[in-house]
Design goal:
- The chain is mainly alpha-helical and 489 residues long.
- The protein contains 25 helices and 6 strands.
- The chain has a two-stranded antiparallel sheet with strand order 1-2. A two-stranded antiparallel ribbon has the order 3-4. A two-stranded antiparallel sheet has the order 5-6.
- A hairpin with a 2-residue loop joins strand 3 and strand 4.
- It is elongated and about 85 Å long.
Length: 489
């Protein structure tokens, strides 16, 4: 007789999502280098991803993902065609948002999750999320402006050149409004954007700028505002600009100029060595480890600097590095990564009618898309997310999602037979579920716990009949999602 879920959790005991260096390295060894690459480049490994990387090889797959414009994306295209609100002009979108704020907000949030779940351009969607955090703007207060910013700034330049991305962000109405540069003028230069531009967008807090530089950059950016009432787009207002001489990071900005002051400042910052170091550090933290080796940070910074901020070239170097290839198990899935990873693991058998069922747990875990209010973006290290409340959410979500076929999640239908192939024995079924859910070889003791769940005698060779599969496959899948091996990648 198989054991019940409560007994299983009691047996699970200390097998909680702790850091790999505490749980033991063997618990987080990928079954293959290809699976490690997929676990970092995608939001969650699917059978189609495995087939692609096996056909292309690791380098070929990485190069393919680095060129998203050449990758057909039919499911996302079809999704976007049915949600025209996401492609509207600022004027049209503002009219709809004024009348139906919740409708627009729900569409924007679900689009973030849908694209991450279903896009063939997985690395692109991961980079979009990185820059969304880097140039953070809270959606709720700037619904129209941030929706446009996501399309015209972040997505347009995510794998392009950093200078172009920085310039687009500096002229984004969402950023101008969020950090108050739209009200900055020569009589009262506002320092909010100038400060975050250097501290969070380019140089970093230790990048070598001073309070005097903040004031001078704020002066240089006076007149960068919004033409309210006519599409609310960026405009430079010479009448509001401080035309006096300025000194920024030791470089002189002559008197008597206009928009050229701000353009020169952005060039200085985009090409500064401290910016290369700061961006490299953040990219390595996101894609390698919370505390990446200095060797990869330094070499990535060199590529970023020598290529003039070529994001694609920088990512190519990082993803092909030895430090990246040997870093499995060093990243803890943030809440959005966990939710999307679960969706991708189950998507072959999943139908979703109620999108709020995913927004609600993200709110509980503290990571609704675009909802971080401070300008520094959502935290990117395990310590910010590895807590009792978050782990309980993950366990509950894993089980409720896996049991969706039994009515445990409103608005979701799940056919696990479309996700997990048939198995003859208990051991084979555990291995098939593990192969589908996690990229590692299960530790022997954890594998045995899963076998015990299905067979009280712990007999891996016990047969799997229709009743056992029907009654225990959802629990097995849910517990696999709750396992440490699913949380770390």
């Amino acid at each position: 007789m198989p054991i019940n879920r409560r007994d299983f959790f009691a047996m699970l005991g200390g097998v909680t999502p702790v850091a790999p260096n505490q749980a033991g390295g063997d618990d987080f060894s990928p079954r293959s280098p290809e699976l490690h690459v997929l676990s970092r480049l995608t939001w969650g490994v699917t059978p189609a991803d495995i087939a692609n990387i096996q056909q292309m090889g690791m380098e070929g797959y990485i190069e393919w993902q680095l060129n998203p414009e050449a990758i057909p994306d039919p499911r996302v295209d079809e999704f976007m065609s049915r949600r025209q609100v996401l492609s509207m002009s600022a004027t049209e979108l503002r009219r709809i948002a004024d009348e139906q704020y919740g409708f627009v907000l729900t569409n924007v949030l679900w689009a973030r999750l849908f694209r991450a779940t279903h896009s063939e351009r997985q690395l692109y969607e991961r980079i979009v999320e990185f820059w969304t955090d880097h140039f953070n703007i809270p959606l709720q207060d700037f619904l129209t402006e941030k929706t446009i910013d996501d399309r015209e700034v972040i997505r347009k330049h995510a794998l392009g050149n950093f200078r172009d991305l920085l310039f687009a962000s500096a002229q984004s109405p969402a950023m101008l409004m969020y950090l108050d540069n739209d009200v900055s003028n020569k009589e009262h230069p506002n320092e909010n954007y100038a400060r975050e531009l250097m501290e969070l967008h380019t140089l970093g807090v230790s990048g070598g700028y001073t309070e005097a530089d903040v004031k001078e950059v704020a002066r240089a950016l006076t007149g960068w505002t919004i033409e309210y009432g006519r599409n609310d787009m960026f405009v430079f207002d010479m009448n509001r600009h401080d035309t006096g001489e300025k000194l920024v990071l030791g470089q002189s900005l002559p008197a008597g100029r206009g928009i050229e002051d701000g353009l020169q400042v952005l060039d200085i910052l985009a090409y500064h060595p401290s910016t290369a170091r700061f961006i490299a550090q953040k990219l390595c933290r996101r894609f390698v480890a919370d505390f990446p080796p200095e060797t990869i940070v330094q070499s990535t910074a060199e590529v970023f600097f020598t290529t003039g901020g070529d994001i694609r070239a920088t990512m190519r170097h990082l993803l092909l590095s030895d430090e990246f290839m040997t870093a499995y198990g060093q990243k803890f899935r943030r809440p959005i990564d966990f939710i999307v990873g679960t969706l991708r693991a189950l998507r072959d058998g999943l139908e979703v009618d109620n999108t709020y069922v995913f927004i609600e747990p993200l709110e509980g875990m503290g990571q609704i898309p675009y909802a971080w209010n401070p300008p520094n973006g959502y935290p990117d290290v395990a310590g910010a997310w590895l807590n009792t409340n978050g782990l309980l959410y993950r366990w509950n979500i894993g089980l409720s999602m896996a049991l969706a076929g039994e009515g445990y999640a409103d608005g979701i239908a799940l056919n696990l037979d479309a996700v997990i192939p048939p198995a003859n024995t208990v051991g084979e079924l555990v291995d098939l579920v593990a192969d589908r859910m996690v990229a590692v070889t299960l530790p022997a003791d954890l594998r045995q716990l899963f076998i015990n769940l299905l067979n009280r005698d712990g007999d891996a060779s016990a047969p799997v009949d229709a009743r056992l599969r029907r009654d225990y496959l959802p629990t097995l899948v849910g517990l696999m999602i709750a396992s440490p091996q699913f949380q770390w990648h």
